[in-house]
Amino acid sequence: MLSYPPGTFVAIAIATHGLVGLALGAVLFDRPLAGLIAGLAPDGDFLFPDLFGWPLVHRGVTHAAVALLAVVLLAAALRDRRTAAAVGVGYGSHFLIDITTPMGIPLFYPLVSERLHLDVAVTGHAPWVTVLFWLCGLSALGYWYVRR
Known about the structure:
Pfam families: YdjM
Helix content: 55-70%
Number of strands: 0
Keywords: Hydrolase, Membrane, Transmembrane, Transmembrane helix
Largest sheet: none
Protein name: Metal-dependent hydrolase
Mean pLDDT: 92
InterPro entries: YdjM-like
Order of helices and strands: HHHHH
GO molecular function: hydrolase activity
């Protein structure tokens, strides 16, 4: 069975979220940096000290639809629609990967505090799925680069 080397899971997971956001932002909206930052943004909750408690914990409020809406509206106010759209798909792609993990995400927080988990055959962070995300992401970036 394929597994991650010890101590590398978090780094690989974060890099995967960034790559997927980067690729989506580039290919769909020609805004790679916005997609990259948005793909990583939900895991900014790693920076919250544990003493804050819920919802300022990993996979807390930053993994809820209210946060997605807030960052898209902020991007639209500060930049343009294409950038806001790239932020939306980058941030949303993070949700789609994390929702397939056993921990799930509190998508409808603060209305519902329960975590949503899609019970699919394999988690979005399984090693072979990560390899697939990387191959697709890098292929999409290659296509975007050549197309420019």
